[in-house]
Design brief:
By secondary structure, the chain is of the alpha+beta class. The protein is 25% helix and 19% strand. The strands form three sheets. It has a four-stranded antiparallel sheet with strand order 1-6-7-5. The two termini are 28 Å apart.
Length: 271
């Protein structure tokens, strides 16, 4: 599943090709997504130009002036730049064709993603209004984690993957950040000290910033907006390495399941 770094990589990749460019054609090959493609998508977009693209959690926001297009990549979706004449592949569901001769093409084999209109603004649309802060923003720190964790019995990994606590800390990045901070993913959030939460908040910022810089994590379905794969997987310390030696102590990494998600950690380095 594309996570926050993958979505941010996509935003950075497509932005130079679509911002300020006139849309001359809209092709919808499949309207049945998790949210059906709006009936007025074609009539509204043709002749319009996107403003500055932004991201909130794993949502891309493409403003048109009076309205904003909300795009979510779901489990297997990707947005990439193609050229006029590039034949669509199976599962290429939506094309936005621009005056410069290039296409913003949406590919989604599982159709769990969607493109829809933002309802009101980010403060009123229920898909965005209940989200926690961005992990790389000043609003996110160890104090917030500590405050929200008091009395919570949820495992640490489950706690930091809660989008009401902080957005964008998906399975891969939660696993890596907990390892960097030396925290057992099974530990109850309410039993973790402020000092350790401050260390964890910095680890989350470090892991996500590194993943964004390197283009996201190489997953089976993910490519950036320009069609390039991510490269952060080359630096993963624990995720996907169950049974292999810990890079710090040499102990075999242990695999468990928390919240129905695969979790790998070091029993010696994470306490």
């Amino acid at each position: 599943m594309p996570e926050l770094p993958e979505v941010e990589t996509t935003r950075r990749g497509i932005a130079p090709h679509v911002e300020g460019q006139e849309i001359v054609e809209v092709i919808v090959r499949q309207r049945r997504m998790r949210v059906p493609v709006p009936d007025d998508l074609e009539s509204t977009l043709i002749g319009s130009r996107f403003g500055e693209l932004s991201r909130r959690a794993k949502y891309l926001l493409l403003p048109l002036g009076g309205r904003t297009l909300l795009w979510h990549l779901g489990m297997s979706g990707s947005l990439r730049i193609a050229r006029i004449g590039d034949p669509p592949k199976k599962h290429d569901h939506v094309d936005l064709v621009f005056e410069g001769g290039h296409i913003l093409r949406y590919h989604d084999p599982r159709r769990f993603g969607f493109v829809d209109w933002l309802k009101g603004d980010a403060a009123t649309d229920t898909r965005l209004s209940r989200l926690g802060p961005e992990p790389l923003s000043p609003d996110f720190d160890g104090q917030r984690l500590y405050r929200l964790s008091r009395g919570r019995r949820a495992a640490m990994k489950t706690f930091i993957m809660d989008n009401a606590v902080v957005v964008g800390v998906g399975n891969i990045y939660a696993t890596e950040a907990l390892f960097m901070a030396g925290i057992d993913p099974r530990r109850a959030a309410g039993r973790v000290s402020l000092e350790r939460f401050e260390r964890l908040a910095e680890a989350i910022k470090t892991v996500l910033a590194a993943a964004i810089t390197q283009g996201g994590t190489t997953l089976r379905d993910f490519v950036s907006g320009t069609g390039e794969p991510g490269y952060f997987a080359q630096r993963l310390n624990v995720y996907g390495r169950a049974g292999e030696p810990c890079r710090h102590c040499g102990m075999a990494l242990r695999h468990i399941v928390l919240g129905q998600r695969a979790t790998v950690y070091c029993t010696l380095c994470q306490t």
